Amino acid sequence: MSSKQSQGIQTLLEAEKEAAKTVQQARQYRVQKLKDARADAEKEIEEYRKAKDAEYKTFESRHADDTSDTQSAVDKETDAKLAQIAESYKNNKDAVVKKLLDRVVLVKPELHRNLKKAS
Known about the structure:
Elements: H1 2-105, H2 113-118
């Protein structure tokens, strides 16, 4: 009976070793599948990124002309307004200086309005 028991124990040990091998293979398979899935996801992400970058560059190049046209129009308008301001300054400079000097130099001495009421 002890030989049958030892033979049964031996069979159980072998079955346990087989089960451990199967579990180890399953773990390795799972790890490999995870690595493959990550690599595939990274490839997909990189392809998506390249597609979106190309789409952005196309959009940017298509709208770059609009921006430069708008900028040149704004620059022309600014230059025209600056020229107008410079011309206005040149035409009115003498009159403004004269008005300022008249106000500063020509003073009419008179009593303050509050002093008049108190008297």
